[in-house]
């Protein structure tokens, strides 16, 4: 019997109603799917969005791609589990909250630790609700009954248990090590939490006794312990192993000349001053040659000169540099100066120049863990959709360095340890009776540091599934796909792989799919300071979620950055309207005649082709093919032909119904709405929601 659809399709009216329909059905939960007991599991763990603000365009792309995977596999008959979550986001969230405190005329420094933690917790939980609502607005068909938060009690307990186990296994140690220090936020950061910025500085050539050294940091000369040259450099062979007298603005110092093959003969004069307290490379070189590695630093935690700098004590770095240079010039110790452009590490949240410092911190020994990760990749247990990212991952694991996991912040998971106030030695706090240090006898106190957020989020795939004893862990682990942004190839992907292999003895996921960054219409990185941030929620309100999803996927190859323009999204809103009008026409006709075998064959070939694309993560091709088929083949050609041939109506019904199935993972709202208007299938079978119908190939 012919049906008449409303004249216009309204995303704002339809989408909330359809999402409620999906939630009410219970089909987001794999246990409720038809024939759930016989289905093979397919699992995706959602990269938990930070619970400290609104979703950005990158989140929208992540959610779209993962929802496409889940909806496709659900229709293919898999027991699909997509676990949503929220990340407390440690340092990042504390930075956000500090900005809020600044606006209120307050500062975290001097605040009671518990009061600050409780305030940030309340702030985070409130934002978490908002973030989750936005995830729903984007059509995510995830199982909300299994949602996890990185500060859930069981997650915290297992994270701390991992720390204790790694310490017992010799994979975690505490000791003096070189760390990246943010003088603004007063915390150490890992290497992946710094951003290298190109900067123009001055390279100073200084007289160092009989030698000339080149440096961009003359203010640190008071912390020098040696001069290093390449052992093959004929200019300096006679000096290696000897002591030279060096004159500074505050007196003379005796420095050993050492030979190290890592010194670049072509940089500057080929002679380098070695300041292990303020340079990671110098620290490593000093350790290799048995030089002092923990001299009194000349720069303190606030970026000011210490008493070691004599008359410059108390000056900020930039001021001290200017004054030291003037005094060196006045005494004729500067040979020459030249412009020097180089890369400088900065705090990735505030842009403050990182000050390397030697501190007692907790470190993870990465080399044995990296070996596990490399073996899993080489054995094909973890595959990357893009060979490019596999190469980056391999290089990162082959050149890994120990990882500082201590953060001097309140917000996060506490490190379960006690620290000696006298010698700095640390021990996991597994024994309540530990009152004094067994090394020096000093008093011990609870460690006030928290874990680097990647230490807990690195364990996310198995923790969200209830490791070690839950039925979910036994059913859905290892997971199938980890889809996330390409910038996390350094930060998150390696850590998930090493923790998964270490704790569960299995890879956390079988396939890694990495998408590129979402830029503005001009290809620029979105930035609040630039004012070019595009809110995905604003776009859905304007054009509909389906249009946004298609705009994010078509033309977006794995790993490549994309530009997001409103005109593109608007074009797919027009496509949603086109689909609605196609359905209006077909449903208004009598479903008569027989299905044309040639046109059915043509469509079935298309369905097979699209299925192959879907199974090989070529979603951008699959979406484009069904888009062109519906708009150009079905609408422009077959419907026009059908207007004069009533016997084609059964064929058009068939093509509409199955086109909706192919399009559903990409545009779930409008397809579900139209599918619900179709007449019941032949044979007396009850019509189901489109989201659980059988994939047509």
What does this structure look like?
- This protein has 697 residues and is α/β, with parallel strands linked by helices.
- It has four domains: 40-162 and 454-515, HUPs (Rossmann fold, 3-Layer(aba) Sandwich), CATH 3.40.50; 188-355, Isoleucyl-tRNA Synthetase, domain 2 (Alpha-Beta Complex); 415-448; 541-692, Isoleucyl-tRNA Synthetase, Domain 1, CATH 1.10.730.
- 39% of the residues lie in helices and 19% in strands.
- The chain has 21 helices and 25 strands.
- Strands 6-5-14-16 form a four-stranded antiparallel sheet. It has a four-stranded mixed sheet with strand order 10-11-9-12, covered by helices on one side. A three-stranded antiparallel sheet has the order 8-7-13, covered by helices on one side.
- Helix 16 packs across helix 17 (566-587), helix 17 (566-587) runs antiparallel to helix 20 and helix 18 runs antiparallel to helix 19.
- It is elongated and about 100 Å long.
- The two termini are 28 Å apart.
Quick rundown:
The chain is α/β, with parallel strands linked by helices and 697 residues long.
Query: How does the major sheet shape up?
Result: 4 strands, antiparallel
The coarse silhouette is elongated
| Cα Rg | 31 Å
CATH superfamily of the largest domain: HUPs
How many E strands? Answer: 25
* Portion of residues within helices: 25-40%
List the main descriptive attributes of the protein structure presented here.
4 domains; 25 strands; alpha/beta; elongated; Rossmann fold; 4-stranded mixed sheet; 4-stranded antiparallel sheet; 697 residues; Isoleucyl-tRNA Synthetase, domain 2
